[in-house]
Fold each of these.
Amino acid sequence: MTAVKALVFDVFGTLVDWHGSIKERAESIAARSGLTVDGGHLAVLWRNRYAPSMATVRSGERPWCNLDQLHRESLDEVLAELKLELPRPDREDLVAGWHELRPWPEVPASLRRFRAQRITSALSNGHVRLLVDLARYGKLEFDTILSAELARTYKPDAGVYQTAVRLLPALAAEVMLVACHEWDLTGAANAGLRTAHVARPGEWGPGHVAQPVSADLNAKDLADLADQFAAF
Amino acid sequence: MTAVKALVFDVFGTLVDWHGSIKERAESIAARSGLTVDGGHLAVLWRNRYAPSMATVRSGERPWCNLDQLHRESLDEVLAELKLELPRPDREDLVAGWHELRPWPEVPASLRRFRAQRITSALSNGHVRLLVDLARYGKLEFDTILSAELARTYKPDAGVYQTAVRLLPALAAEVMLVACHEWDLTGAANAGLRTAHVARPGEWGPGHVAQPVSADLNAKDLADLADQFAAF
C-alpha cells in the first residue's frame, strides 16, 4: 500500500447509490404526471442498457458521446418497453437525475480520509460535468476529476486507465482503482493498475447477490478500506 | 454576472506568488551548496523564458511537453547565464518548487466563496499533476482542475479555452476566466469567454508597475472580485 501514490475511484455504484436515487426520482416524476411506476424496476432496466450503449462507442461503431446522450436514448427504449408515456421535460428531468445521486453514507468522510494521505480522483465513465455535479451534490471531495471523456472512450478500455496514469502522472502500479465492479477492476489490472474491491451488495436494490471479486485489496465498504490503509 | 455559470482561474501570478516562492527556494537551495544567489533576479530570468518556451509547443515546432520539462530546460539556460554551478538534484529541487507556490493571502477563502455559488476550476498552463500539487499545497479548493495539458497546447491558444468550455460544458459566454495577465484575458475573450482581471502588482517582485487591462470585470484582488459577485 505504501507504493500507492494515487487513488482513483469509480463512481456509479461504488460511491453513489444510483438505484435508490433513480427509483425515487422516477416515482416522483411519474406521480407529477398522474402515473405510477415501479421506479426500482425502471432503474434496473435503464442500467441494464448502460454497458451495451457504451460498447458501441468503445468499438468505434459510433463517435464519442457522453452519458447524458446515452442515458437519454436508452430511457426512450425503456419507457417504450414499459409502455409509459412521459412528456419530454420529464424525460430530461430523469436523465438529469444521474447528476444528483446520493452517496453511500460512509463515502464523503472516507474520501476526506484518503485525500489527507494521497492524491485522489474520480475515474468514471461519467463525463467531467456529470462528475462535477455529482461531487457538488454529494459533497465528494477529490483533488481532481478524471473521466472517460478525457480519453473519449469508456472503461474497461485500457485507454481510460492509461489516460489517468498519464495525467497524474505516475507508474501504473502506483495508481489504485477503487471500484465495486469486477469488469472495471479487471480493466484496471490489465492496464497495470492496483485494484481495491469495495462490496456494494445493495447496488442493484434488494434481492441481488454480490459475487466474490478478485482484487489486490477487498473491503466491505469505503470506511473499511480507509481503515486498512490507516492500519498499514 | 448572472449568466456566468463557471469560473475558471489562471494560477501562476493570479492565485499564487511564484516570484516570492521561487526567490526563497532558490536562495535556500543555493545556500545548501554554499552559494549565494539573488533569488528574485533568478526568478525573473527564469520566468522570462516561460512564454518563449511554450511558444515552441504552441507553434507545433516541438511536440507537447509539460512545464516540468520546459522549466528544467530553461533553468539550465538561466544558471549558465548566471554562471551558477548547481548540482543536478538541486536543479530538480528548484523545478519542483513550481509545485509548491504560496497562494496570495486572500485566495483560499475567496475560492471557497466562489465555489459556494458557481462551478469553479483551475485553467492553467500547468499540467494536471502540477496543479493538483499546488492545490494541495496551498489549500486551493476547486470543483475540478482543467489544464492546457488536456488540449496539449498552451494558452493563449484558443484550443485551451475551448477545451474548458467543452468539458464544463457550457456556452463560451457562460464561462469567465479570472486572470492577472492581459495576454491570457485576450486569448479567453477571443475564444468567446467572459473575463475578469485581478490586479497583481507584486507578481514580478518589487518595482514592477502593473498596466491597466481591459476586461469585463476588474478587481483589485480575489476578495474584491468575490465581493462584486456577492453584491450583484
Amino acid sequence: MRRTLLPYAVLVLVFVGAIIAVLGHGKRLEEGRAAAPPAATALDAGAATPLGTLLAQIIVVVVAARLCGRLSARIGQPKVIGEIVAGILLGPSLLGWVAPAVSLSLFPSNSLGTLKLLAEVGVVLFMFVVGLELDLESLRGVAHTALVVSHASILLPYFLGVVLSLVLYRSLAPAGVPFVPFALFMGIAMSITAFPVLARILEERGLTRTPLGSTAITCAAVDDVTAWSILAIIVAIGKAQGLASSGLTVLMAASFIGLMWYVVGPAVRWIIGRGAPGRPSKNILAFVLLMLIGSALTTERIGIHALFGAFLVGVVMPREATFRAELVQRLEEVSAILFLPLFFAFTGLRTQIGLLDTAGSWLMCLAVIAVATAGKLGGSMAAARLSGMGTLDAFALGALMNTRGLVELIALNVGYELGILSPRIFAMLVLMALVTTFSTAPLLALADRLRKRRSVPVDMENAAVRPSASSRPPQS
Amino acid sequence: MRRTLLPYAVLVLVFVGAIIAVLGHGKRLEEGRAAAPPAATALDAGAATPLGTLLAQIIVVVVAARLCGRLSARIGQPKVIGEIVAGILLGPSLLGWVAPAVSLSLFPSNSLGTLKLLAEVGVVLFMFVVGLELDLESLRGVAHTALVVSHASILLPYFLGVVLSLVLYRSLAPAGVPFVPFALFMGIAMSITAFPVLARILEERGLTRTPLGSTAITCAAVDDVTAWSILAIIVAIGKAQGLASSGLTVLMAASFIGLMWYVVGPAVRWIIGRGAPGRPSKNILAFVLLMLIGSALTTERIGIHALFGAFLVGVVMPREATFRAELVQRLEEVSAILFLPLFFAFTGLRTQIGLLDTAGSWLMCLAVIAVATAGKLGGSMAAARLSGMGTLDAFALGALMNTRGLVELIALNVGYELGILSPRIFAMLVLMALVTTFSTAPLLALADRLRKRRSVPVDMENAAVRPSASSRPPQS
C-alpha cells in the first residue's frame, strides 16, 4: 500500500503545484477580449434563476396538492377535490390575498408563461390517458337505455345552461363576446361528467361491476365524447373569424378525426401489434410519444385545442390491457405527480374567489350550482327512471353523473383562454365544479341509507359504501 | 328497439329545438359588459401558440435525434454521437445558416426560455439517473491502481488544460473574465469522462465484467465525482462576488453534501426500506421526486448548479437493484426520449461552428482536441502502464477514458451560462467532445487488431469487439 501511496502523493503534489504555478503566471496576462456569450446571466449567488423559480413552484405546488389530497381522502372524498382546493389556495383567493409578497416571489409574472406551458403539457398527457382508459369497444353492444340516459344527461343540463345564460349574459359575459358562443359554452360547462373521477369513485366503492356502475361508466364515456366534440366545435367557432372559416375548421377537425379513426388507428395497432404486445419497448414508447405530440400539434394548428389530439391518440391505441397499463404507468405516474398539480395551481392562479364580493354574485353562483345539479343529476335521474331503473338507483346514477372534477376545469380553462368566460364567471364555474364533485360521495351515501331504511331489495351485490381505502389514488 | 328509438328522437329534437330557440332569443340581448380575462389570447386560427411552438419543436428535435442516433449506431458509434450532431445541425451551424426563416419560425426567440428550462429539467433528471447508476459502494474495496489511474487521468489533462489556457486566454476568453476561472474551467473541460457513455460502450462490447472494463468504470466513477466537485467549486467562485462570498458558497455546498451523505441518505434508505423494496409505490415515487427537486433547488440556491443536487440524490438512493431499475425506468425513459434531445438541440442552438471562420481558429480547435486527447488518453495510459497494465490494455483504457459525450456538454453549458466561455471556445469544446467521443470505438478496434496481430496473450476473456447490437440504446 505504501508503494502506491507515495508515488500517488508525489503525483498529486507535483500536478497541483504545477497548476497553481501556471495560474499565478496567467494572472499577469492581458485580459481576454472575445465576445461575451449573449445569454450571460446575472452572476449573483442566490438570485432566483428561472430553473430555481420553477423548482420552487413545483415543490410548493406538489406538496400542497398531496397534503390537501390526503385530507380530502381522509374525509371520504376523491383526492382530486383536495388537489383542486390546493391550487385555489395558492392563488389570489388565499395566498395572494394573505401574503401578496410571498405569492409574487413564488409566482413572479415572468414565470407564468412556463408554468402555463407545463400545465398544458400535463393536461395533454392526462387527456391521452383519459383516451387510453376509455374503452369504446365496450359501447358497441351496450343497452339502449344507457345511450338514452347519457344523451338525456347532456341535453337537459345543456338546455338549462343555455337558458341560464339569458340571465347571466349581460353581467358576466366579457365585452365583445356574442351571446351564442357564451351560451354554447355555458351549456358545455353544465353538462360535463368527469369520466376519470367517476371511474375512481366506482372503483373505490366496489361498484365497477354492478349494473349501476357499468351504466354510469358507459353514460360518462358517451358524455365525454359528446361533450368534447361540442367543445371542439365551439372552439372552432370561437377562434375562427366568420362562418366560412369556422366551417373550414370544423371540416378539418372532422377529417382529422376520420383519418385517425379509420386510417391511423388501424395502422398504429398493426405496427405496434407486430412487436410483442405487453411491455412496450423504448422504440414503441418513442413512437407513441411522437404520435401523441404530432396529433396534439395537428389539432392545435387546425384551431381546436391540442388536448383533443392527445385524447384521440389515446382512443386509437391498441386495446391490449397490459400494453395500455404499461403505457399509463410510464406516462401517467410522473405526470400525475408533477404536472397535474401545476395545472391545478395555474387554474388556481386564475380563480379569484374575491371577485364574488357582493350578495348578488354569490346568488348567481348558487344559481349556477343549482342549475348544474338540477340539469345533470335531475336529467340523468329522470331518464334512468323513465327507462325503468328504480328510484334510488336512478338517484345514485344522477349523483355519479354530476361529478365534474378535473375534466370540467380543463374545459373551463379552454373557455377562459378563448376569452369567452370573464374572470367572475370562471370563478363561479370553478366553485360549481368543486361543489358538484364534492357532493357525489354524500349523495351516494344518502341513497344507500335510504335504501337500507326502506329495506328495498338491493338489486346489486356490492353496493355497500366502503370508505375509500384504495391504493390507487384518484387523479382527476 | 323502436320503443326506445322514438322517444329518444323526440327527446333530442325537442331539446335541440329549444336550445336553438333560446340562442335566437339571446342574440337580441344587450352585449355583456364584464371584464375580459386578462390573458385573452389572439383569436386567429392557426396562429402558433406557445404550446404549438413547443410541440413542433419537440417533434422536429426528437425525430432528428432518433434518425441521427440510428445512423450513428449503424456505423458502430454510440447513439449519443448522432443525437449531439442532430442538435448542432438544427442550430445556426446548419439549419440557421441554410434556412434562416425556417429556423426562426421553429425556434422563435421568445420560445428559447422555455426550451432552455425544459432542457435543464431533462439534464437534472439525467444527472439523477447518473447518480443512481453510480455504485459508490463498489469503490470501497477497489484496487489502489484504479485510484491512481483515475486521479492521474484527471491531473494530467487538467494541468494541460490550464497550460493551454495560457495560449488561448487572450483571444478566446470573454472580456471581463479573469484568467483563473477561465483556466480552471478549461482544466475541467479537458478532464471529464462520460461515465454513462462509457458504461454503455462497455456493455455493448461485452467488456463490463473484464478487468479492463471494471478498471475503466471505476476510474470513470472517481473521475465523475472529482470533476463535479471541482466544477461546483468553480461555479461557486464564478458566481460569488469576492473571496469571502465564494468561500461561504463552498462551505455551504460542503455542508449540504455532508448532510445528504450522513443524514438524509441513511434516513431516506430507512424510510424507503420500510416499505416493500422492489417496485416503488406511487407515494414513494412522489417522495423521491420531491427529494430530487428539493435537493436540486437547494444546490441552485446555494449557488452551485441544480444538477449537483440531482446527482447527489441519485447517489444516496437505496442500493436495491430492482428499486433503482424501476426508478430509472419511470424517470429516465420518457426523459431520454423527450427531454435530452431538447438539451442537445438547445446546446446546438448555442454552438456556432461558423465562428471558426479562420485557419487560426481551426488550428486552435485542433490544438484543443490534441491536448484533450493527449491529456486524457495519454495520462490514463501512462498511469495504467506504470501501475503494471499491458501496453495495449493501457491504451484501450486510455481510449475509454477519453470518451466525453453528454457529460462534457452539460459542463460546457454551465461554463457558458456563467459567462466563462465565449461562443467561439464553446463551439471548439463541443467539437472536441464530439471528436473524442467518436474516436473511442475506432481506437478500441485498433487496440484489438494490434493485439491479434501481435498475438499477445489476451488477458481478458470477452475482449472481442462485438459490433453494437444492444437492445438498450446508449443515452448519453
